[in-house]
Structure formats: structure tokens, C-alpha cells
Amino acid sequence: MIRTRLDSPGKSTLSPISILIHLLLLGALIFTLIPILFMFTASMMPRKDILKMPYRWIPQGFEVQNFIKAIAGNDGSFIFIRNYINSILVSGIVTFSTVLLASLTGYGLAKFKFKGRNFVFLAIMATMMIPFEAIMIPLYLVTTKLHLQNSYGGLTLPFLVNAFGVFMMRQYLLPFPDEFLDATRIDGAGEIRIFWHVVLPNCAPAIATLSILTFRSQWDNLLWPLLIAQSEKMKTLPLYIVKFAAEKYTDEGAMMAVAVLASIPMLVLFFTMSNYFVSGASVFSSRKG
Amino acid sequence: MKKAYIGIDKKLARWGWIFITPSLLFFSLFSFYPILNAAYTSFFRKNILSLKPPTFTGLKNYIYLLKSPDFWNSIRATFVFTLGTFIPLVVFSLLLAVMILLVNKKSQKYLQLAYYAPAVLSSVVAAVIWLSIFNPRGLGNQWLNFFMNTPGIDHQWLANSFMVQFSTILVYFWKYIGYFVVIFIAGLSAIPGSLYEAARIDGADNWQSFWRITFPLLQPTVVLVSVMSMLQCLKTFSTQYLFVQSGSPQAPINVITLNIYNTGIRDHQIGRSSAMSIILFLIMLFFTWFQFKASKADSVSY
């Protein structure tokens, strides 16, 4: 769009400014992609190649040893696999419940008129201003009192729904035609049926975006599992990575292999659903540090 | 007739409440209660492990913090990190967004995705990648020595107190630049093209349309992105935690969240860490309020 605004017509594309712009964009491209490329290539190299100067960007072979070390762990306990499954389970549970509760609440706030509706909406929005870091200590105390440390319940409980999800679903449902809902009511459909069969299927794009945002933020969550999961069995992937990095600081190949394995689900999601990632970013999200 | 109508209304209102109740309960238990509890606990001397009941100490925790050099160091570390990260983030993401919109349509999409890619990786993975790059014999030194023509020098990315701060900033900048580029592109695309056409008919050149139309109309987005990135920076934890665990000195990057974690969980000083949490909360609340005011004052309709 801007192209037509700023480029006067007929200007050659090889003007100095245009070349400069392309060079800067290319520089930024290198800056963002090189570390990712480094992660992949280094994960396939033996240590002596990783530290070779200059760095050889095309691996000579495939160092399986790195991946074996990554999965077997420092002590050969293969706890990595369990931690990986934990991450998938926790992220999955949280995503499912966030989507369900956020769309229920968003629908309730967008399409039903009742006293106190605006107050409830504002109150929920206010929780967006409460950073997790400020309430983690009381949450930790509650969870320990309920004896939920080292359990999936404890890992997921504080994240079952979030204000941003409610906000997003409400915004998405506001323009949904009331007449349509009323028509199904006249046809005799119950409210739950309407929600399940009419509202939810019509929210697919919003649900996809919210799912990705939620899944990613849980996949990324380090702070809360750090508090709650002390037993090796209940740790999640980020905790495994921290421990592995602290102990294997000098084994770059194995470290990058762990990083690759931890990134695969997100990268697969990104390549198949990149539009939802990008739309998620532009729905001004103010979550996640 | 009238009675039945009211009945339906009431029935629907009831369903509205049914739909929102689960979340409402959740938010009360896991957001409102904890923040009140944190505020309450911050007035007590409380130790997780001790069986003694917490003793009320009034503002003592806050006074202790205000006198503690360690706490002020955390405030310093947090603000150095925040300022050092969010200003370049906003400037460069805006610059990149404008430049992306100048190239042809087809490359635009791919460029956005490529810049966004680091944001897809988890922050721990990002920190691990850079940990290897910052290795004394790693790529970081190789590149810097190449560009500065200083062969063989170790820049101590993770050891020197200035460099370790710079390193955390670099990781964060790398991870989030694409995210804000996407937001800026959304903001730029929302400016209606008719304004530019009108300006062109009135004889405005490109620079004039940029400074008179794009720039003022983009201000709300700039404010939004600034505050958003600032709030995110204030909460940073993963990178610093991982670096410290891998042997970096803690003091230069002992950001406030790291300090809350260490004080509360490692040292069991619940009251003190609650007081710190409340201070962090108030700082962030101030910036949110500031955002609200600024975006209201700047809001334009077109």
C-alpha cells in the first residue's frame, strides 16, 4: 500500500535509496535468521567443527551423538522424554481449557445483556494489568497448601483461562448477528446447543489464533514450573533445558540438539499456520515476557 | 404478551451469567485473591519453612527494601535492561516496518515471516542459542573481531558486567523485533489510502505525506508498542535466569523478577518478596496508566 504512496511513479527501482533499503532489509534478515541456522547446523556437528574458525555453515555429516546426548541427558536417565511429554500435556490442557472458557465467557459478555455486564468485563480486563510475577508467590502458597506441587493440576491451574483470551473472543463475537441466534432459539435450540453448534464453529479463526498463542506461551513457561515442579519426573522442557545448559555448557552440539528438539513442535506449527501466528501478534497482545 | 417478553430477557440474562461464571470464579481465585494476598503478605515477616506464625511488621519490608543495595541494584538492572531493549526495539521495528512496506508485495509476506521466526522459539531456546554464540570461542567473538578488526580478542560476552547486560539485551531484541514489526505493519496498513490520495491531489510530496499523515496517525501505535515492549521488558526472567545458571555473574543482570524468585523461593523470605512483587506491580500499573492517558490524548478518528 505504502509503496504507491511513497514511491513516485516511474522511479527506477535501482535508485540509491532503494538499494540502501534492500541492503538494510537483508542485513536484518541475516541478523534474525543466522542464530536459527546456527542452531540447526551446530546440532549436527561435532564440537571441533562448531568452534572452527571461520564457522562452516554446511555440516560435513550428521553427528548423531549430539541428539543421543540430548535425549539421554547428563545421567543417561532419558528423563528428557518424560519432560517432553509433560510439556505437551501441560500446554495441551491449558490450551483446551483456555479456548473453552474464553469463548464461553467472551460469548456471555458479547451476546447477553445483564446487569453488571460492563463491570464484569472491566474487572476481567483489569487482571491483564496484574503481572504473573507479582502474584506467583501467593499462587505458590495456595498450590502448596493444596498439595499440588509436582502434579499436572499444579502446573496448569493458574493458567486455565486468561483475560486476553476473553477479550479476544468477545471482540470476535461482538459483530455476530443477534438475529441469527434468535432464529435458532425460535427453532427450539437450547443455549448450550447454540453455543456448541452455532457459536463455536463460527469462531474457528479466533480459536486457532488463541490456541497458538496459548500453546506457545505454555511451551515457553519457565517461571511457574520452576516453582512447582521439583521432581525430575514432573519438570517441563524449559526446566530440562536450563539444567542441561548449566551442566553441559561446553558441549554446544548437544545443547543445540536439545534446542532443536524443543523447537520442532513450534516450528511445525509455524510453518503450517503462520498466518495465525502473525494475526495473533497484531491482536495487540500484552502477555508473556 | 409483555410478561412473556420480560421472561425471555431474564432467561437470557441468566444464561449470560451461567456462561461467565466459570471464568469469573477463576479470576477471583487466581488473579484478584493472589494480588490482595500479596499486598497483605507484604506487611508481614513470613518465612516459608518456619512454623512460627507470620508477624505483622507494617511497612518494615518496604523500608528494608528501600535501604537494601541489592534491591536498588535490581531496580537498576531492570531499568537498564528495559531502556536498553525497548528503545532500540521500537526504533528498529518501526524502521523495518516502513522499509518492508516499500518493497514489492510478494517479498513483504516472506520478510515478515522471516523476521517473526525468532519469536516462535521459546525464550529458553533463544537464550541457549545465544549462550553458544557468546562462548569465548564462539561466533560472537568471531564476528565482532571480524567487524572491528581485532583478531583474537575475547569480548567476555558472559563474564564482563557490561557485556553480560548487553548480551541479555541482544537476545531479547533478537527475539522480539519481528513481533513488533508485525504490529507496526498492522498499524501502518490501517491508515486509509484515501488520505494519501487527497494529499497527493493537494500537491504533497512523499516526505510531506510521511511527516504530515503517516507519522501523526501512527502515534497511537507507537505509544502502544512502546508501552507493551516496556511492560514485557520489566517482566523479563528466562534469559537472565538461564545465563546465571550457566555461570554468568548475577549482580549485573539480577532483574527484579529474578530477585523476587530468589528472595521468595530460595531464601524463603515470603514477606519481603511479596513487597517486591507489589512494587513491580505498581511500576507496571503506572506505565499502563500512562499508556492509557497517552493513547487517549493521541487517539484520532479517520
Automatic annotation (TrEMBL), chain A:
The keyword Isomerase does not apply. It is a multi-pass membrane protein. The keyword Oxidoreductase does not apply. It holds the Pfam family BPD_transp_1. Signal peptide: none annotated. GO terms for cellular component: plasma membrane. Keywords: Cell membrane, Membrane, Transmembrane, Transmembrane helix, Transport. Residues 84-273 form the ABC transmembrane type-1 domain. GO terms for biological process: transmembrane transport. The chain crosses the membrane at residues 20-45, 84-107, 119-140, 152-173, 194-215, 254-278. Its main location: membrane. It is found in: Cell membrane. It comes from the Bacteria. PANTHER family: ABC TRANSPORTER PERMEASE PROTEIN MG189-RELATED-RELATED, SN-GLYCEROL-3-PHOSPHATE TRANSPORT SYSTEM PERMEASE PROTEIN UGPE. Belongs to the binding-protein-dependent transport system permease family. This is sn-glycerol-3-phosphate transport system permease protein UgpE.
TrEMBL record, chain B:
One of its GO terms (cellular component) is plasma membrane. The chain crosses the membrane at residues 12-36, 79-103, 115-135, 179-198, 210-231, 275-292. SUPFAM superfamilies: MetI-like. GO terms for biological process: transmembrane transport. Keywords: Cell membrane, Membrane, Transmembrane, Transmembrane helix, Transport. Residues 75-291 form the ABC transmembrane type-1 domain. PANTHER family: BLL4140 PROTEIN. This is Sugar ABC transporter permease.
